[in-house]
Backbone:
């Protein structure tokens, strides 16, 4: 079975009927008592009994009123049988014997706890996510799972653990294109898709899923920080060397083009060595002035 819309009666209209029923029951009892005291008859006795029965019916009748706010629904159940769902906000009246289970259709935030899991490389990490969800199908939310709120919490934690194990924390080689730290949009989209597959049977729509916390576990955080620093230093050195080689080539080409000085291969090698030391060194170099000839 799937969710089906249920039309109900306006609460204001049935309130007027309810008032008339109450007045009729009181009037019948009072009239019967007065007639019994003055001139007892079967009609007066019947009026008292009828008024009493009508009052009992009125008491049961009042249980049929209920209200719904915007983005709220009521699932109607009669003795264990699903009768439909009311989504229209306002004051309504339905069968007094219906069980009216209200469900909020508003968007909700699930701020997950920090979970300690292993990424694809086996490194322990801490991860958490914020999930925005809402109920779309009230029948599935009420009857297909025991408690749809607890179901969302448990399945969300399971999905986050699964997604964390599919990707490395960071890209350390060329075998991976997506990482948890560097590909936030791709990971969030994968998490949203994973959650929708898991929560769809509970009638839940996942509107958004984002990682709210991502870090290495404390026991390996220091070592991973050193590795990141080493990677950054290597990348910076590589950039410096590439720039220095280009500057040396430009200097040699310019000297040769303008004919300022002619250098043999040995002098070129010495010049390249000196320029690379100057350009790639971490500290500033101290100049040495040559007061002799070029070859001294």
Residues:
């Amino acid at each position: 079975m799937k969710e089906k819309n249920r039309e109900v009666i306006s609460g204001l209209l049935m309130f007027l009927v309810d008032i008339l029923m109450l007045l009729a029951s009181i009037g019948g009892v009072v009239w019967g008592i007065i007639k019994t005291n003055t001139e007892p008859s079967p009609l007066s006795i019947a009026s008292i009994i009828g008024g009493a029965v009508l009052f009992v019916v009125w008491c049961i009748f009042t249980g049929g009123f209920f209200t719904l706010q915007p983005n709220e629904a009521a699932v109607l159940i009669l003795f264990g049988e699903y009768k439909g769902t009311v989504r229209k906000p306002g004051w309504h009246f339905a069968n007094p014997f219906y069980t009216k289970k209200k469900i909020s259709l508003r968007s909700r935030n699930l701020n997950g706890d920090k979970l300690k899991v292993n990424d694809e490389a086996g490194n322990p990490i801490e991860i958490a996510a914020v999930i925005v969800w809402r109920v779309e199908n009230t029948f599935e939310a009420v009857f297909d799972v025991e408690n749809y709120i607890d179901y969302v919490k448990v399945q969300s934690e399971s999905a986050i653990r699964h997604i964390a194990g599919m990707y490395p924390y960071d890209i350390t080689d060329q075998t991976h294109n997506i990482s948890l730290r560097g590909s936030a949009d791709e990971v969030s989209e994968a998490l949203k898709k994973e959650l929708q597959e898991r929560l769809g049977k509970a009638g839940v729509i996942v509107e958004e899923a984002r990682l709210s916390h991502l870090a290495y576990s404390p026991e390996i955080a220091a070592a991973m920080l050193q590795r990141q620093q080493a990677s950054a230093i290597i990348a910076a050195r590589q950039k410096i060397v590439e720039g220095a080689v280009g500057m040396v080539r430009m200097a040699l080409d310019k000297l040769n083009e303008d004919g300022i000085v002619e250098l043999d291969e040995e002098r070129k090698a010495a010049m390249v060595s000196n320029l690379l030391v100057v350009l790639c060194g971490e500290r500033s170099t101290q100049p040495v002035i040559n007061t002799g000839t070029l070859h001294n």
